[in-house]
Design a protein that fits this description.
Elements lengths: L6 H9 L5 H12 L4 H12 L5 H14 L2 E3 L5 E3 L1 H22 L5
Antiparallel strand pairs: 1-2
Amino acid sequence: MENKETDALKRLRRKITIETLWIYIISALKKKGSQHGYGVKKTIKELYGFNPATITTYTVLYRMEKEGLIKKDEANRYHPTEKGLEALNKAVNLLKETIKKLEEEEKP
């Protein structure tokens, strides 16, 4: 029998990758240092195994900069801000808490 991914799992994969791309962007910048937009896209593919569309990456970078999560230097390289690093930590903790709740055994 073929091991086909369900539509539900495909939707989940999209939700926790493309639709939360900001988390991966800040994490990539934290791990690899400042980068240009295309470098961020390549780093996401390298570190996390998915390849966001170029236009999606730049759109999210723009929104993140506007929100103050990242900033650009004079060479147009992106850096995470303190606000961005704090948001990343909160997001990671939220994901950990969610996984913990999903894995908990039901108590009788």
